[in-house]
């Protein structure tokens, strides 16, 4: 009973102190204000759940910075020789309809040309990512607080997955010319023509076509987002990855 009375008395005191503090203080975090005043009267240290002092702009810029830094790290990792090709997590396979072509050519000792084509698809992605980096930066800069608000307290890869879902169509359109140029530069187009010429010389084979540009674009972006999610998780949880003051403020809370 005494405990209940003390609790009721404390509640009444809190209400009176809040009213005395005035409407300005009540609007500025009423629970923190009230508990602070009550603590000064009772001598007890009372705090509510921490209320972030971050502004909407801070939060938005923090996520944009995390994605910019993360994408820069991933481009550096994947945009070099064997960045895709030697990494089983993101290595770009042949398009599905060319796997049958490889099987048939392997039976006549011509699998090497298909393997060379697959290698060149990965080389094209490795060459294209650094050239496409400004596209990622522009897309990240276009994110607004409305975009970020729903992911601020989400899982460790929430920003990456939201960015992936919203921006992939636009990024794909912008990246395809870059990928197309890279396919020609690394010899993938010539390798494809060679493979298809060998395939068509086989008797009774169905016609097969593959859109290499679309395939490499899709798989290249998949690889980018795969590692970007890991970068985001590290920035959220590892202080050593919070390399700027803004990242420390947003993710070090």
What would your notes on this structure say?
- The protein has helices at residues 2-21, 23-27, 30-42, 56-78, 96-107, 111-141, 145-149, 158-185, 188-200, 212-237, 245-251.
- The protein has 253 residues and is mostly helical.
Strand and helix layout:
Layout: H1 2-21, H2 23-27, H3 30-42, H4 56-78, H5 96-107, H6 111-141, H7 145-149, H8 158-185, H9 188-200, H10 212-237, H11 245-251
Helix pairs in contact: 1-3, 4-6, 4-10, 4-11, 5-6, 6-8, 6-9, 6-10, 8-10
User: Which class do the helix and strand fractions yield?
Assistant: mainly alpha
Beta-strand proportion: under 5%
Contiguous uncertain segments of 5+ residues: 1-51
Largest sheet: none
- Distance between the terminal alpha carbons, to the nearest Å? 40 Å
Q: Counting H and I runs of at least 4 residues, what is the number of helices?
A: 11
Number of strands: 0
The proportion of residues forming helix, as a percent range, comes to over 70%
Order of helices and strands: HHHHHHHHHHH
- Write down the overall mean pLDDT: 80
> Radius of gyration from the CA trace?
28 Å
Count of discrete structural domains: 2
Shape: elongated
């Amino acid at each position: 009973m005494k405990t209940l009375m003390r609790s009721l008395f404390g509640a009444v005191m809190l209400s009176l102190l809040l009213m005395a503090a005035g409407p300005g203080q009540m609007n500025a975090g009423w629970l923190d204000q009230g508990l602070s005043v009550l603590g000064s009267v009772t001598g007890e240290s009372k705090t509510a759940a921490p209320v972030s002092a971050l502004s909407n702009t801070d939060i938005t810029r923090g996520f944009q910075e995390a994605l910019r830094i993360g994408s820069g790290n991933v481009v550096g990792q994947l945009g070099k020789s064997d960045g895709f090709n030697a990494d089983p997590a993101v290595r770009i396979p042949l398009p599905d309809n060319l796997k049958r072509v490889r099987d048939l050519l392997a039976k006549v000792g011509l699998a090497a040309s298909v393997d060379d084509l697959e290698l060149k698809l990965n080389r094209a992605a490795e060459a294209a990512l650094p050239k496409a980096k400004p596209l990622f930066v522009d897309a990240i800069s276009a994110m607004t607080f409305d975009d970020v608000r729903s992911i601020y307290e989400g899982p460790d890869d929430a920003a990456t997955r939201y960015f992936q879902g919203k921006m992939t169509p636009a990024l794909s359109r912008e990246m395809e010319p870059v990928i197309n140029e890279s396919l020609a530069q690394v010899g993938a187009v010539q390798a494809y023509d060679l493979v298809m010429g060998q395939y068509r010389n086989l008797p009774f084979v169905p016609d097969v076509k593959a859109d290499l540009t679309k395939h490499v674009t899709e798989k290249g972006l998949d690889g980018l987002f795969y590692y970007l999610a890991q970068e985001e998780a590290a920035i959220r949880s590892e202080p050593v990855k919070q390399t700027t003051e803004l990242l420390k403020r947003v993710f070090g809370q």
